[in-house]
Amino acid sequence: VGGPRNHRCRALSIALMCPRAPIDSAMVSLRLYKTGTADEKRDEAKLATALRVAGASLATLKQERCYMVALEDGAPALSAGDASKLRWLVAETFEQDKTSCSPGLAAPAASDAHTMLLEVGPRLTFATAWSSNAVAICQSAGLRSVARVEMSRRYLISTAEPLTPALRAAVSAALHDRMTEQVYPEPLQSFSSEAPAAAATRTIPLMAEGRAALERLDKEMGLGFDEADLDYYTNLFVDKLGRDPTDVECFDMAQSNSEHSRHWFFGGKMVIDGVEQPQTLFKMVKETLKGDKVVDNSVIAFHDNSSAITGFGVSPLRPSSATGPSEYKQTAELSHLLLTAETHNFPTGVAPFPGAETGTGGRLRDTHATGRGSLVGAGVSAYCTGNLRIPGFEQPWEDEAPLAPNLATPLDIMVSASNGASDYGNKFGEPVLAGFARTFGMELDNGERREWLKPIMFSAGLGQIPDVQSKKGDPEVGMWVVKVGGPAYRIGLGGGAASSKAGGEDADLAALDFDAVQRGDAEMENKMNRVIRACVEMGESNPIVSIHDQGAGGNGNVCKEIVEPLGAKLQARSINSGDATLSILELWGAEYQENSCLLLRPESRPLFEAICARESCPSAFLGQVTGDGMVTLEDSLDGSTPYSLPLEMVLGKLPPKTFVSDRKPYPSKPLSLPDGLTVADALGRVLRLPSVGSKRFLTNKVDRSVTGLIAQQQCVGPLHIPLANCGVIAQTHTDFSGAATAVGEQPIKGLL
């Protein structure tokens, strides 16, 4: 079984017993079942929608959870007391009556064409994050022999129409995530898997075939290379390096140097109506920090994962020790106010819930990966989609228009994306203080249609950073390159390239788009954040020299960034992996979540490992800074070198790209109101706009006050209506300084 524990397991599938019955290794078919799950309504809505699209209707849906446990290889059967303890943990304190040793759902008769029993659960090639947390709880409760605990979901579905093979496939697709889950045709008897071996690293015949070989790989893997990319990389390998690249190197460059990662458009040459503009967009934005009327209070701007402005002297409580229980002492420090913001549009459009939850997670890592580490405060969440067209509540302005087949519907995005972002923040422990929601879709006078098919999922975060942590240290020869956070999985593959596209234009690459969406684990992010926070709270003794959060391109991007310009030699098999079937390309390039990269001095290693052990957070020491300007990845299994490139050629001063645009006249006409429109009708339409109407559907499902540092959240007044003009956080529990934030947008004016 994969995962951090890396145990070889004997599956008990579930060897859980009713109270007082001892677990026996021969009783491998026993399971524990639980009804009344929190996801019932959500699953019912998803299934009803999927069946409606397929031309059918849902009659009834019943569901239960099945818990499966594996013991360490060679471990004796659990005692009666341990079996009872394990059952109590699964049943939860107040729901003992909902837990049974027998299934509550039975397979329908073969003659029943309207009913099916479906069981779905995690893929067997890796232990889930949920399992890691469950095993940790069992270990803490004294159940030392428990090695893996997984949970499946069992559904008994009845439809008004006979369940054809197509309808059965639609039901299955609606109720499980094919990237991380699978259908169990029969009750699971073992966690062992016969998954294919990891794919070998390939060499791309660029020397023999020239650019055509790279074009073929680009199409096969969805790398998103443009003409400039194809020319540059062909020249790099054929003329400068004189060798063929590996697929690992090509995939890495596609992600690390994508528009998403390098912002070529903002930093490129702009040619408008044949005239090259004097400034790039980046330079125009940076000009706002200059001038006689500008207050020079910028501490961090345009060169780190967040921005910061000058803060205040505060007296926070800090623990005396980062590695064990200790007293808190009041300290004095200068702490700056921090803000970061980003969008996670492409993943949210393809898979709204995981796309938005990992957008929140990535932005949280941007916060704590600023300087040498910083402190998370509160969040901002916002969404822009096309017309919702709520069934039975369609609005007069919502015309029907075709949607991209590989993107979710606007309604699904608005509901599921906000659920994902809220769920992640709630589990992590970050309050949300502000946001907005807007929908739009319309055919303009010039025949163009403007609509958010690829949505906007906007996530921002307030925090603070002590002055002594505000500047990253430079890499030095001999420093350790360290990864901290969860293990690698086959998720988030190709996100940099996929996010650089408009969205929805490559229906034939829908599978690759889906592969590029990450999956979130807020509990692991919380563990990792506590490690970073512990280091930050050490003040001048912070062992972290530099930190970057892992994003698009995975290890390949973040490990290069943090050692630039000196380079490093890294070991691929030192990367924590939760899936034994991952290839080197996947280990190096997957954007698996909840991970950051650090530089540590060799003498700081014992301290950092002790902090990680205290927080139960995995860490991995991949290699050391070399000083030769190369990033080299070695595979100790076969002695190969899947990646070895000079930083200055793949990350340094790469040539800017040129973007050519021409202005087109935009026909406009005076405002014309519909005949017979009354004030009441007009007001009713305005109040039904999501941008104007109540935002309770967003605010009521997310925490707005956790941390005890929230001075103003978005709900105000005796009726707790979400109408606040701003959100405010305090810096400490005893001082009177803090930060205020507000967010707003009016993009539709640009169309007038």
Q: Concise description?
A:
With about 750 residues, the protein is an alpha+beta fold.
What does this structure look like?
The protein is α+β, with helices and mostly antiparallel strands. The strands form eight sheets. Strands 1, 2, 3, 4, 5, 6 and 7 form a seven-stranded antiparallel beta sheet that branches. Strands 21-23-20-24-22-25-26 form a seven-stranded mixed beta sheet, with helices on both faces. The protein has a six-stranded mixed beta sheet with strand order 10-11-14-19-15-16. Helix 1 (40-53) runs antiparallel to helix 4 (165-175), helix 13 crosses helix 14 and helix 14 (410-428) crosses helix 17.
Report the helical percentage: 25-40%
- Which parts are unreliable, with pLDDT below 50 for 5 consecutive residues or more? 1-29
Average pLDDT = 87
The rounded distance between the terminal residues' Cα atoms is 59 Å
Q: How many DSSP-defined strands?
A: 32
Beta percentage is 15-25%
Tally of individual helices: 23
Structural class: alpha+beta
Outline the biggest β-sheet: 7 strands, antiparallel
Over all CA atoms, what is the radius of gyration? 27 Å
Shape: globular
